[in-house]
């Protein structure tokens, strides 16, 4: 099925039905460990109160986000006739609908499947997308990439502006610009992104106290139980060769014990190595197609995800959005990668919230789910990097 040659009404109907199901799960919020909605009604609502007093959350170890994230946290205030929770969910659905509409428009001119991938893929994460602000962040990255595919210079600048805002909200949307074609497009997009990010940071610094406090909390993070390093430690613990345990720290369960610091430093080293590889790829790349900026963005975010000390289930929202953008181009080389991400998303939701107590306790069910999910993500990252390289560098 495609948007251009198939039933647009069917896409709308499927979107409405799947989102209604996600809303129902969110209202009940009793699946597995439950409490998915508490992030919004508790933590986000608390931060909203801090912003109302003119400051970013001071000395709050759970605030680990760039200053632009405050704009998303404050945005429910634009709907005063709703409760904070209701307004947040409504805005998340609006961002989801904007992504779907943008992908459908991109699909309409060619035989592609981006809108269907997003519409059917996001519900694999159950109700998590409606209770996190990652859908809003993903919308900025998706719209930025779609703008960069235009031939108009103004659209390239708009793409840069959106990527710059996204970078100030959650950093990773800056990677949407890693694959822009050399020359005028790169200059326009990168300049617009840098100027937008700098301006937004200056404005927030003038209006609110402690705008860079998140750096302190982010630097203290350890190895989360859902990361690749965490899975390695869990398997070692299950084999009886590692004596550590999971502990709730910085708003998530992290491992504490011997070698945890080493694993954390290794993750940082691998992240730096991924960045160096991306720079080297950009220098060596000699062939650009309309799909290259899209493919490069997905490969880059995948590499940074698998090397991270933290891989929360909402990270899959980013990857599903970027894969959907890739599928709006017939020249993409990321179709196998996009297919790998679908079961990875389903396993992420199975790990949290359905089997989260098993994941924390390190039972065989929890270990199996996390090992399979992270194996799929690692395979997707390696495959994405390889296909990006072979499609742009090797003859």
UniProtKB/TrEMBL annotation:
Give the main location.
membrane
The annotated topology with respect to the bilayer is: Multi-pass membrane protein
Under the heading Pfam families, the entry gives:
GT87
InterPro entries documented for this protein: GT87 (IPR018584)
- The transmembrane residues are 7-27, 81-103, 153-177, 189-208, 228-246, 258-280, 337-357, 363-385
Q: Which UniProt keywords apply?
A: Cell membrane, Membrane, Transferase, Transmembrane, Transmembrane helix
In which compartments does the protein localize? Cell membrane
Give the family from UniProt: Belongs to the glycosyltransferase 87 family.
The name on file for this protein is: Glycosyltransferase 87 family protein
Q: What is the lineage of its organism?
A: Bacteria, Bacillati, Actinomycetota, Actinomycetes, Kitasatosporales
């Amino acid at each position: 099925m495609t948007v251009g040659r198939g039933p647009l009404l069917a896409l709308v109907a499927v979107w409405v039905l799947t989102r209604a199901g996600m809303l129902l799960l969110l209202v009940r919020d009793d699946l597995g460990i439950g409490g998915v909605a508490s992030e919004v009604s508790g933590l986000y609502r608390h931060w909203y109160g801090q912003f109302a007093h003119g400051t970013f959350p001071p000395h709050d170890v759970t605030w680990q986000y760039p200053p632009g994230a405050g704009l998303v946290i404050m945005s429910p205030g634009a709907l005063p006739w709703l409760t904070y929770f209701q307004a947040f969910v409504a805005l998340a659905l609006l961002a989801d609908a904007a992504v779907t509409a943008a992908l459908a428009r991109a699909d309409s001119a060619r035989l592609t499947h981006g809108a269907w991938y997003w519409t059917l893929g996001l519900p694999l994460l159950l109700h998590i997308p409606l209770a996190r602000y990652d859908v809003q962040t993903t919308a900025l990255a998706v719209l930025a990439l779609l703008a960069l595919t235009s031939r108009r210079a103004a659209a390239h600048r708009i793409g840069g502006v959106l990527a710059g805002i996204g970078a100030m909200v959650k950093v990773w949307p800056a990677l949407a610009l890693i694959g822009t074609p050399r020359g005028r497009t790169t200059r326009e997009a990168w300049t617009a992104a840098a100027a937008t990010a700098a301006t937004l940071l200056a404005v927030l610094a003038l209006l609110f106290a402690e705008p860079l406090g998140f750096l302190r909390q982010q630097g203290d993070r350890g190895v989360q139980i859902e990361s690749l390093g965490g899975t390695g430690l869990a398997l070692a613990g299950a084999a009886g060769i590692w004596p550590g345990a999971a502990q709730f720290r910085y708003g998530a369960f992290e491992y504490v014990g011997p070698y945890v610091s080493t694993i954390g430093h290794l993750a940082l080293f691998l992240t730096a190595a991924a960045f160096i590889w991306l720079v080297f790829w950009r220098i060596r790349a000699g062939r650009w197609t309309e799909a290259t900026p899209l493919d490069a963005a997905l490969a880059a975010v995948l590499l940074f995800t698998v090397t991270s000390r933290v891989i929360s289930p909402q990270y899959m929202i980013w990857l599903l959005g970027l894969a959907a953008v890739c599928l709006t181009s017939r020249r993409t080389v990321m179709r196998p990668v996009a297919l790998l991400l679908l079961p990875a998303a389903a396993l992420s939701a199975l790990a949290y919230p359905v089997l989260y107590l098993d994941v924390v306790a390190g039972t065989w069910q929890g270990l199996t789910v996390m090992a399979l999910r992270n194996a799929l993500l690692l395979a997707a990252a390696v495959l994405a990097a390889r296909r990006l390289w072979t499609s742009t560098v090797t003859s």
